Amino acid sequence: MKKTFVLAILFVFPLVAYLFFASGVNNFGKLPVLTERVPDVSSLQSDVSLDGKITILGFLGNQIDQKKGNAFNLNQKIYKRFGDFNDFQMIMVVEEGHKEDAERLKSELGELSNADRWHFAYGKEDEIRSFFNQLKTDVSLDGDLSTPYVFIIDKDRNLRGRKDDEDEGVKYGFNTTSVAELNNKMEDDVKIILAEYRLALKNKDANRSK
């Protein structure tokens, strides 16, 4: 009887563990869509697009020197980890007339890592506010047209986030002033969306080979 019980544990436990983790992969394998089809940055002054890219979208406004700490946090904790992926990019929205400040920031970031996938989009105040409002988040722009929060936009221009965050419930963006949040939450969510696309590509290739 004892021997049978031990054998049952040896065979059943691995199966239960497999089912548990497989279920976890299915449940957490996709990052929820919170806003569908956000506008493209082509509606602003920009040489880049959200289409076909996994984008970290941020708003630096018109006081870029005061936001350097946020940009450096994001660069060190997120960009340096994922910037080598071909489909990954950073786009920061800046008020028109502050291109030199943005380029200077990019140059400083380039001293820490390859900043080729850091991009900027420019607009007038009303254009930036209109663009931001169409993200339909629970975050507001500050008076200088900035926010410390950045947002994950997928290849189809959907804003991705969390519907059951342990602290906020629905979580639209990530606070770049908090290194802990970038480390413990945003990094995980970027991993999830990259894994989602890798799995989709793998399945597509497998179907082609049939």
Number of strands: 9
* Uncertain parts: 12-28
* Overall domain count: 2
The CATH topology assignment of the largest domain is Glutaredoxin
Helix share bin: 40-55%
Q: Which geometry do the CA atoms define? A: globular
Number of helices: 5
InterPro entries: Thioredoxin-like_sf
Protein name: Membrane or secreted protein
Organism: Flagellimonas alvinocaridis
Summarize the structure in short.
The protein has 210 residues and is of the alpha+beta class. The protein has helices at 2-28, 68-82, 99-110, 125-133, 179-208; strands spanning 33-35, 54-61, 88-95, 118-123, 146-153, 159-160, 162-165, 169-171, 174-175. Strand 5 and strand 6 (159-160) form a beta hairpin.
What does this structure look like?
By secondary structure, this protein is of the alpha+beta class. The protein has two domains: about 1-30; about 35-210, Glutaredoxin (3-Layer(aba) Sandwich), CATH 3.40.30.10. Helix content is about 45%, strand content about 20%. It is built from five helices and nine strands; from the N terminus they run αββαβαβαβββββα. It has helices at about 1-30, 70-80, 100-110, 125-135, 180-210; strands at about 35, 55-60, 90-95, 120-125, 145-155, 160, 160-165, 170, 175. β3, α3 (about 100-110) and β4 (about 120-125) form a beta-alpha-beta unit. α2 packs parallel to α5 (about 180-210). The model is unreliable at about 10-30 (pLDDT under 50). It comes from Flagellimonas alvinocaridis. This is Membrane or secreted protein. InterPro entries: Thioredoxin-like_sf.
Which short descriptors sum up this protein?
210 residues; Glutaredoxin; 2 domains; two-stranded antiparallel sheet
